[in-house]
Amino acid sequence: LTQDDLKQIAAYKAVEFVESGMVLGLGTGSTATHAVSRIGELLQQGKLENIVGIPTSKKTHEQALALGIPLSDLDHHPIIDLAIDGADEVDPDLNLVKGRGGSLLREKMVESACRRLVVVVDESKLVDGLGGSGLAMPVEVVPFCWAHTARRLESLFGGGGGAGRCVAKLRRAEGGGEPFVTDNANYIVDLYFAGPIGDVEAASDAMLRIAGVVEHGMFLDMATTVIAAGACGVTVKNK
Ligand code: DER
User: Fold this and answer.
1) Residue 154 annotated as catalytic
2) Residues flanking ligand 1, CB < 6 Å
3) Distance from the CA of 175 to the center of ligand 1, in angstroms?
4) Which helix (H) or strand (E) holds 225?
5) Tens of pLDDT along 13-38?
6) CB neighbours (10 Å) of residue 174?
7) 194 C-alpha vs ligand 1 centroid, how far in Å?
8) What is the mean pLDDT of the chain?
9) What distance in angstroms lies between residue 89's CA and the mean position of ligand 1's atoms?
10) Which atom of ligand 1 is found nearest the CA of 97?
């Protein structure tokens, strides 16, 4: 089984929670893509009906549109029955890191309006503590003086590069030297930690207090179910 097979298995399992008539949050990323295509397939087959999709990115909006999934937004549907989305890290408390696809702001806006958030991952995403993977923890920042904001983020964690616990890097667009620009015309500063963040609630509050920070990629106390697919099978963990 390839990693993508595992992503598809987890995604299809999550779609079993979808019922006709639901308002659905449609996630972003390679795992969520499988869930969106599965929903489209069931609609085509008449096994699902009266679904309204609330996309979490322009990319997912385009995918869902092409599949004929009826779409709307939070202004028209402030309460969402169920969202299905991927994650970059999942800790034992079902706290998440998301946003390596750059969609964390719209994902967090949609998913904080959901009754249920079902997260779908392959087992490589499971960590003991957020920040522990050594991979990026994304922070959406306004473009204005982004380097100043990046330095303030580093200094929160005793950073400043080198031996510091955190290094901040501006995310660049594919191949080019240009900054990556989000669906909301902001930049992303990726934080790289030397080890697990530890007190994630305190880190969240401190980051959000920095003027210039729009949102960060930690999704705390938001997931209600995590479906993880691994070589030994699929686990479903509820909050
Ligand atoms: O960018 C995102 O938030 C994605 O959902 C990410 O967290 C998971 O992406 P993947 O399914 O492609 O690994």
Assistant:
1) no
2) 27-32, 85-88, 98-101, 103-104, 107
3) 20
4) strand 225-230
5) 999 999 999 999 999 999 999 999 99
6) 6
7) 22
8) 95
9) 9
10) 7
Q: Give the pLDDT of residue 160.
A: 52
Model confidence, pTM = 0.96
Ligand 1 atom at minimal distance to the Cα of residue 125:
13
| 165 CA → ligand 1 middle, Å | 24
pLDDT tens-digit map of 148-178: 999 999 999 975 544 558 999 999 998 879 9
This model of the complex carries an ipTM of 0.98
CA–CA–CA angle 172, 173, 179 (5° rounding) = 50
Residue with tokens 């305190």: 202
Q: Can you say whether residue 114 is alpha, beta or left, with left for phi > 0 and alpha for psi between -120 and 50 degrees?
A: beta
At 113-152, the pLDDT tens digits run 999 999 999 999 999 999 978 889 999 999 999 999 999 9
What phi, psi does 40 have (nearest 5°)? -60, -40
Q: Which atom of ligand 1 is nearest to the CA of 107?
A: 3
Looking at ligand 1, which residue's alpha carbon is closest to its atom 9? 29
Active site residue: 19, 41, 89, 107, which one? 107
